[in-house]
Specification:
This protein is of the alpha/beta class. The strands form 3 sheets. It has a 7-stranded mixed beta sheet with strand order 3-9-8-7-6-4-5, sandwiched between helices. It has a 3-stranded mixed beta sheet with strand order 1-2-11. The chain has 2 domains: 130 residues, Aspartate Aminotransferase, domain 1 (Alpha-Beta Complex); 199 residues, Type I PLP-dependent aspartate aminotransferase-like (Major domain) (Aspartate Aminotransferase, domain 2, 3-Layer(aba) Sandwich), CATH 3.40.640.10. It is built from 15 helices and 13 strands. It is globular. Helix content is 42%, strand content 16%. The longest helix has 18 residues. Helix 6 links the parallel strand 4 and strand 5. It binds pyridoxal-5'-phosphate. Pyridoxal-5'-phosphate (PLP) binds next to helix 5.
Length: 394
Amino acid sequence: MGIDFILDELDDLQNRSLLREHKIIEGAQGPYVHINGKSYLSFCSNNYLGLANHPKIKQASIDAIHQYGWGAGASRLVSGTMTLHQELEKKIAEFKGTEAALLFPTGYMANLGALCALVSRGDMVIGDKLNHASIIDGCRLSGATFRIYPHKDVSQLESLLQRSSGYRRKLVITDSVFSMDGDTAPIPEIVNIARKYDAMLMVDDAHATGVFGKQGKGLIEHYGLEGKIDVVMGSFSKALGSVGGFIAGSKPLIDFLKNKARPFIYTTALPPAVCAASLAGLALIQEDASLIDSLWRNIASLKTRLLQFMRTISVESPIVPLIAGSAEDAVKVSSKLYENGILIPAIRPPTVPPGTSRLRISLMATHSENDINRLIETLQHVGFLTHERTTLRM
Ligand SMILES: Cc1ncc(COP(=O)(O)O)c(C=O)c1O
């Protein structure tokens, strides 16, 4: 026995086309990346604005290393909180229109930390079926009764809340932009329903931050709902090209999380230079509207090109899923694209439901029109995009 089960499980994953392996990127992230010395056109990064390799951000982190060194040396509550953590938290709160904010080392930890602090046994947490894995893990780990409503189905959300009166606290949680489908949550309706049933509302704005709203403030700002969401979660790891998660909200919420959120308390603070990079990213998107404009131009351009193959299509964000169906089919298309110099790994279960394995295209502001044309032509060349296709989903 021992650890033999590991080999069996790996074989099983391999046989079902579900084994995951990573490619090694040699050099910086951008529309083109190098793998094994060869250049590939990448359509699979969350680096939507191309900030991961922006000269101003690199310089800001280098300057911070000179001033603060690299490591933070301790957890935040011991002695790891440095000037740049404080400055970044202040800027996040301003940016998201809240009283206060709290940094976490990653967005995953922000979701886990907030959920587990806010609800536990005797409480109810309700989430969209397609919420991100970090939310699902947080809901499960919290110990609260966890209910799921069908994707974006607000009437089902309401009927779950109607049956929630016996619970001590209730919390509703949704992604704003769904990470594997790129569609957006009906946040205004969810706000009304949560309020009607006196439930807390938490929104994960990770993929909308830097993409939606005035100066990239996110989907909550886009809907004019600043100040109406109890718990706003975000990440610097997507459009802002950095790393680190955050929760923004009222001052009491942030004071509470500082005391109760274990993934905040029991881990080393982010290196200060990471905070400097995130601060520079926030400054950039607020100063230079052309970055977000270019991204949306590329989104419109891809949509137009796809409409030449499909009658209807809904493209709401830089994330555009092309559904292949089985894991095996998705892997085959992805490999053919790779042979043709395009990098889009297959997204398969458990990340997406069985039968919906896909190519998740994600656009960047720094893709050119030619890059988008090449993507379409290559999808045609490998036989994935044909004029018989009527929808993004199969
Ligand atoms: C919707 C959503 N929330 C949270 C996260 C986690 O963020 P991070 O990558 O900063 O841990 C991700 C990213 O994977 C995500 O897509």
